[in-house]
Amino acid sequence: MSARSPVIDIHSHFLPERWPDLAKRYGTPKWPWMRHTEAGKAMLMVGDRDFRPVYDACWSGSRRIEEMDRDGIDMQVISVTPLLFAYDRPPAHAADCARLFNDLSLEICTQGNGRLLSFCQVPLQDTDAACDELSRAMKDGHVGVQIGNHVGERNLDDTGLIKFLQHCATENAAVLIHPWDMMAKDRTAKYMMAWTVGMPAETQLGIVSMILGGAFDQLPDKLRLCFAHGGGSFAFLLGRLDNAWQRRDIVRGKSENVPSSYARRFYVDSAVFDPTALRFLADVMGEDRVMLGSDYPFPLGEEFVGQLIRNASGFDDDAKARLLGGNAVKFLGLTAAQTKRA
Q1: How buried is 4 (Cβ within 10 angstroms: 0-12 exposed, 13-18 middle, 19+ buried)?
Q2: For 173-213, what is each residue's pLDDT tens digit?
């Protein structure tokens, strides 16, 4: 472990090696499943469609620890791929799916000897069921929850979603907000533009909907939120948003203050893949609001986790220590005992 603070990756994903046939379990088609192709490799499937090639770091705690050691990572927080959120499914099916994968994620964490932590998932389309599963999962040992940036047409200023976030504050659960179900599917179908264009746009939409919809003004300061993928395009277009807010009343929505003032209400991860972008992100958000996030071990994640921060110019050693782990300790609410185990 580093002398100053542990190095913590707050944005990494897992998939169990195997799980029940969900299409058979729920009697509906097009559920995710794993097609193992050779030793240590598999294809994540959706129905009969190839979705993403994966390898055993998704399910093998020992492989994950091996690669964490290679990259100098002390702790990782694992969360399921958003493909399994199941927000468009019947709430009872989504709740059962959440319980299933929440329990499986903790099984993987037991292989990490205290170095692996987990964000749970919840059936967010049903606020009461989501609150119940969050409470259960937190009691079982999860450190927070990963949610999508919208549920169908409901953005993060929706009354039910605000109620859920208020419950997260009550449960002292950190919240990672991950883009999913990206907009403009037909127009971004080629060249993986759903990831390169849709994800940043969806993330910005999630943040802006919370600001202008008045969600932040209704949520307690103690709620700890992080938007994945560097907050998408939010930081880079914040000046445009402020300008519009100041010039047209209609832009202000329900927000009480200028949009840039809300940047202190949430964290972002470092998954921007460019040192100039990272420096700008830290300038806008503050060096105490950016945390290491890799999207490991998926193909478009950071190949060597932490390399961007470690090699970036314009940050002193103290700032790099905060970005690499000090900020995550606060975001996750980790105790000294938990960090020492790493």
Answers
A1: middle
A2: 999 999 999 999 999 999 999 999 999 999 999 999 999 99
The answer to whether residue 252 scores a pLDDT higher than 60 is yes
Would you put residue 2 in left (φ > 0), alpha (ψ -120 to 50) or beta?
beta
Q: For residue 37, give Cα distances in angstroms to 23, 24, 49, 243.
A: 21, 22, 14, 52
Looking at residue 2, its pLDDT comes to: 45
Instruction: Judge whether 49 lies within some domain.
Output: no
User: Is 44:81 a contact under the CB 8 Å cutoff?
Assistant: yes
Distance, in Å, from the CA atom of 145 to the CA atom of 161, rounded to the nearest integer, reads 13
Nearest Cα to Cα of residue 177 among 139, 128, 215: 215
Helices 275-285, 234-247: axis angle to 10 degrees equals 40
Residue 43, strand partner residues: 35, 53
Chain-centroid distance of CA 13 in Å reads 9
Predicted model pTM: 0.96
Is residue 209 included in any domain, yes or no?
Answer: yes
Paired tokens of 129: 């069921």
CATH number, residue 145: 3.20.20.140
Q: Which residues span the domain enclosing 147? A: 83-340
Residue 248 clears pLDDT 90, i.e. is over it = yes
